[in-house]
Amino acid sequence: MPGKVAKIGSFSDWVGLFDDWRKEIGVNQDDVSSFHFDTLYGAVETGDIQFGSYKGRTKWENLRQVPTQQMRDALMNMIVYQGDTEFASVEQQRNLFESAPSDWDRRALTRVMIEEMRHGWQMCALLIDFFGSSGKVEAQKMLERRAFENKRLLGTFNVDIDNWLDFFTYTDFVDRDGKFQLQMLKYSSFAPLGRSTSYMLREEAFHMGTGNDGLRRVVEAGVIPRWLMQKYLNKWISSSYDLFGTDHSSSAHWAYVWGIKGRYDEPQNQETADLDDLNDYNRHLYSETWREEVLYSPHAVQPEHWTMGREEVPLRNRGATR
Ligand SMILES: [Fe+2]
Ligand SMILES: [Fe+2]
Predict the structure, then answer these.
(1) pTM summary value
(2) CA–CA dist 174, 286 (Å, integer)
(3) Domain 13-24+68-305 CATH (choose: 3.40.50.720, 1.10.620.20, 3.30.1120.10, 1.10.8.80)
């Protein structure tokens, strides 16, 4: 919305909007309202930029050090998209409390939702602390869009999650995509963004585990027909592939050149990046990882329980996403 003026002056003003948002979407039960949200920065492996044109220079600590406006815009956009997915997932999951299969599941859901709120909080703290008035406007808009009004920035995050099979499949696969996106941002030339991802990544592991454990229990219970499980797997695995973005993406190209977002395996990968193929490269790594961790882990859902073979997950149109 061009020309929009922020009604927030400081982060504590934004916290007021965040409190209103929790109440409005109906997730502010005791566990959530009493939780102390915090901005958490961890360590990054190196203070030097690890890839792209600025490789070897010191990572940027503030916006003034980022060389061009285009780069500042790309960086802000990246943070806005990441934050939008975090709040959106809470909106998607907001109706599941009443139908939790057990108290354990209800507690796991509460923890997942609190952590997603904290991730959104973290991204908004970056926007407000580092991106001036446009960052404040974006942090405000982040709490004005709604998944259930189809207003979130990426299609996957506007879809309702209205039952627990949906939730388990979503957390196993879409949160796994979240882990990939955060890992790629962990190497960012903008140090505060890289530092933001450490705690988020730890929290993301719990979300994936919740999904994987839930799917295992569903399979073991043997009540849900296989065709129905297949339907949910197809829905969220194809969505997760979409989230890697379009093939031959110029924004992925420039984000790499500018050191803003690396490849998932950046520190171990000695090959020169193919700038025309970054999204598909990361998508393939994702595909290999879920096959290893989900299909072939001794603790996870085993392939003989699934109707799908290795080639059976359809790729939807890799439509305009990132
Ligand atoms: Fe998250
Ligand atoms: Fe998550």
Answers:
(1) 0.91
(2) 11
(3) 1.10.620.20
